[in-house]
Amino acid sequence: MLKSKMSEFDLIAQYFTRPPRHATLGVGDDCALLTPTPGMLQAISTDMLIEGRHFLPDADPAQLGHKCLAVNLSDLAAMGATPVAFTLALSLPQARAAWLQPFAEGLLALADAHQCELIGGDTTKGPLNICITVFGEVPPGLALRRDAAQVGDDIWVSGTLGEARLALAGLRNEIVLDPSTLVAAARHLHAPTPRVRLGLALRGVAHAAIDISDGLSGDLGHILQRSRVGATLDVDALPPGPMLSHQPLDLRRRFTLAGGDDYELCFTAPSEHRKAVLAAAHSADTAVTRIGSIDAAPGLRLMDSAGAALTLQLSSFDHFSSP
Ligand code: ADP
Ligand code: MG
User: Fold this and answer.
1) pLDDT per residue as tens digits for the range 18-72
2) N or C: which end of the chain has fewer CB within 10 A?
3) By alpha-carbon position, which residue is closest to atom 11 of ligand 1?
4) pLDDT tens digits for range 101-145
5) Dist CA 42 CA 22 (whole Å)
6) DSSP structure class, residue 130
7) The domain 8-138 belongs to what CATH superfamily?
8) Ligand with smallest separation from the Cα of 33
9) Rounded to an integer, what distance in angstroms lies between the CA atom of residue 74 and that of residue 265?
10) Which NCBIfam families does the record associate with it (predicted)?
11) Architecture of 146-303 per CATH?
12) What is the pTM of this model?
């Protein structure tokens, strides 16, 4: 229940209710009803965004609406799943039209771009906290699972890395960035592009995939652990974001390897599939870069472009051990 001038039900009706498209029953009943596509597996994922933890208290509401759905769609992308629908659980300190209107617009614009329908949720008064659950579909046997990497696979990454971390470093005054650099980098932090089309194009082409939310080295580590393999990365092949590419080598290496908030896909594919990977990337209009290979020896080895071993102090993001 949300006690405010605008009632909870007015708020839901005004901002979050639209005629159902594919759903059999959408917002307004005790449950939504979805008719599954025969023969498909359902892919389901939840991500929560909390003020002060995942975004700053003055975050732009339209960008926040975009981002909280984008990070969820990114999980569907990393599974090779087609987005179908989502629910929105929203805790809000007050019902303000000046916040709700742009939030709903940012959220629903991205939802429409992916034909992913808002089918229900919950609304309550409390600290700002946004929790989305996405529902997608993938044919049996074609999901891009973390446990599917094989020795000899190439490792690839989409887009560029480290730009969101560069923006965060600028916002936190860890480094000094000129204002135009900060504005450009902050777009990657506030409005990530979920790689849904690439994930779909990689069905049957890639073996394993993960989306990079906590930093490449840590997230690739999850593939290695689940697949019981190791990897060697060419650190100088990692594609830095456009603003990061002008920063010193050490920062470039650390932010591309362990930046966080990139929402690019890291995936593995057999080397015979190189042409198919490039064709998939082309069809999805998304750049991809080959950055290393999967080995039998456990652990992650870092090399520079000359093949010399590198030791870098890296920490990927973890809510319970990071500051
Ligand atoms: P209940 O009392 O059964 O939990 P609610 O009163 O919380 O139902 O919600 C009424 C309807 O509005 C339900 O269909 C629910 O899914 C939907 N709903 C509630 N909050 C949201 C929201 N933030 N976005 C979309 N749908 C919502
Ligand atoms: Mg409810």
Assistant:
1) 988 899 999 999 999 999 999 999 999 999 999 999 998 889 999 999 999 999 9
2) C
3) 28
4) 999 999 999 999 999 999 999 999 999 999 999 999 999 999 999
5) 15
6) E
7) PurM-like, N-terminal domain (3.30.1330.10)
8) 1
9) 8
10) thiL
11) Alpha-Beta Complex (3.90)
12) 0.94
